[in-house]
Known about the structure:
- The protein has helices at residues 47-54, 89-94, 111-120, 126-139, 155-167, 185-200, 212-218; strands spanning 2-11, 21-31, 36-40, 62-70, 76-80, 96-100, 173-177, 204-209, 221-226, 229-234.
- By secondary structure, it is α/β, with parallel strands linked by helices.
- It is globular.
- The strands form two sheets. It has a six-stranded mixed β-sheet, with helices on both faces. The protein has a four-stranded antiparallel β-sheet with strand order 2-1-4-5, covered by helices on one side.
- The site of adenosine-5'-diphosphate has 13 residues, from strand 2 and helix 1.
Amino acid sequence: MIRFQGVNKIYPANNxxxxxxxxxxxxxxxINDKEFVLIAGRSGSGKTTIIKMLIGEERPSSGRxxxxxxxxxxxxxxxxxxxxxxxxxxxxxxxxxxxxxxxKLLPRxxxxxxxxxxxxVVGASDKQIKDEVPKALKIVGLESxxxxxxxxxxxxxxxxxxxxxxxxxxPKLIIADEPTGxxxxxxxxxxxxxxLKINELGETVxxxxxxxxxxxxxEKRVISLEDGRLLGDAKKGKYII
Length: 241
Ligand code: ADP
Ligand code: MG
């Protein structure tokens, strides 16, 4: 469902960096439906850049990125992400739920409203919102917190809200970029177990992390990056950098 083919990415020089940065160098891999895949590597190795290519936020300098999914009419759609026009990006984004390290919740909205908002912006009806939001909150185990505000939640609970929001369009792919970066070990495993459960429910999950403990304990497929190069792609991988 996902294919990177010889992808290179060079970021131009900027105020922070007088030289261009080669963030990805000849990256190729495929990810099938329903896989659980780790993208592992130190900070700066290119993990987030791969994710940005997948959601069409950045384009490769060369190489190609493919994403296939089944659309609302049940037709298989094979799209080349790097060739998408701006107006076609929202459709792609609805197929992919993304979770970030810093949760990105709206502070003045409750848990329910944060998740509902993702439906409101695509014009969902009140009935859809009433039906779908509790289902997503149930999956992440937060039904009892739906009237709370983000400031009243632990880090782990905030990340659960972000995951519920990522699930709300029923995407086939969930991408989590360092989702446990702000969490203690207990809540870290809480979130990892939730991602495993979501994978068991049938979603493809991509988890980008620099956390060696997560990589070494999960025994899942690991795509390892070092300085923008693909260092390894192992079925039951360990942290190798
Ligand atoms: P990771 O997520 O593994 O920490 P990134 O993909 O964020 O790695 O970054 C890879 C490299 O690209 C780093 O050297 C980083 O400084 C550089 N980089 C990332 N984004 C930009 C940008 N917008 N402009 C310039 N350089 C960038
Ligand atoms: Mg990153």
